[in-house]
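hi!! sorry for the late reply, been swamped w classes. u asked for the two structures so here they r. pasted raw, havent cleaned anything up. first the sequence of the first protein and right below it the tokens
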Amino acid sequence: MTIVSPSYIKQKARQLKKEKSLSQHQAYDEAARYFGFHNYKHYLNVLEDKQKQAASTKETLLKNIYSEKDISTKERFAISFIQDFKISIGELLDILKQFQDSAAAIQSVCEKSNLKDVVQTFLLNDFHTEEGSSELQNLPFNQYFIAKEISVKNLQYSLENDVLYIDGDYDLKLEFECEIPEEYKDLPHFYREPMFGDFEIKIDEDAKLTIMNSSIGEKIGDRIYAEIFR
């Protein structure tokens, strides 16, 4: 039997309560039956069993990671774990500590994790801060633009003293921040190629992300404008 999220049950119950003028109890029973359960109590029992089973499986996989001696097998266990369960950055760092002596395993495990998405979100949010936007606007004509979308690539991961370091490159798309003067719209500067740069980020044992250094640049016509900051 496929379990569904409690939010789906709740949403369906609201719909049925309104459509059929049911009591809340009746609506939840009807919603549970809609998804294949006998009633709402049956749904809750199945949900609890599934959660216990998942917790047990998670605990077993963690034990396998920590106890396994063969590095290749340990790596497979770790990748399986991070792909099967939603884990925090702190939990990921704890797992990576099991591979202190294998740079290749750290790279492999990190590539299979959600760190790329975490880094992209962090960098984009940083460009929206006062400090980040001021750095962006130091380049020609950028006072009219804000960061819209960022993609990172060529990520390299290393673990030193329980701190994860991430080096990589990025491309940054811009969008207009506000209305610009009409006479500027035909200038070639406003048909922008994505900006680009590189960065180094560290994630400490408290799962805090910090930009260690970064650069930013862009190509306008045949000229490349670039600067290094932080």
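now the second protein. again sequence first, tokens right under
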Amino acid sequence: MLTSRISRIAASSLGVTALAFSMVPGANAARAQEDVPTFQEFRAATFQDVGGQYVVNGDETIATSNELRDYYERMVNSRDTDSQSLVVNTVGGADDLWSASQAANLSYCVSDDFGADKADMVAAMQSGAGQWEAASSGVNFTYVPSADANCTTSNSAVLFSVEPTETTQYIARAFFPSSPSSQQNVLVDDSIWTSGSWTPSNILAHELGHVLGFRHEHTRPEAGTCFEDNNWRPLTPYDSSSIMHYPQCNGSSSDLSMTDTDREGVASVYGS
């Protein structure tokens, strides 16, 4: 999810909550530990989206309370990771990516519920998807308009749905390849049309980066803020201008444009 440009990542996502205690050096560690919320406090403060999913790190979803507890425990116990060199999400130590055959057919629908904005949403999705497709011959997002009338996560004609939502919590949010099918949707608030230099195409390209398995670049220690967790593997050198880096988290891009480093990263896992 991309939060508004004037806000930080929501405190309920723990990406910011954890920042208070995950980056504090020795002398302040004890005090920082006192500021760690209990799991019950954290769960109560975490935003729940459509279908009851918990939204963390701005635009990533967690399906159940048990999975949220696992996430909480990882955050509380995590330590900063030294970067060796885009970052890919990992699950159980393995890269969270699509198979080659699935990456070549990432089918989606765009809900008719977008109404008068639907044509613009279709165009923005195609433009955002095109940024990743141009960087890797192994990535292909396929729009299936025949599924638009019933564009939900239960429609087996597509891999994922693109649906409108109304929220003040984010502009858009997405999912990872490992997410359960009930979470495989991209939800978009109508604030996407009034986000200044963040174009709808770039916002959706950021979200589709998550769909491809890529994490927020600012979870890396070089960012110095907005740490999320250590469940990732570096694909490229740190890039403060990455399309996956929130500008408000010490990022150096004002418009979420894709960089050459982003292109190198996707090509390294899905093919050039």
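hope this helps!! also noticed smth abt the second:
The radius of gyration is 18 Å.
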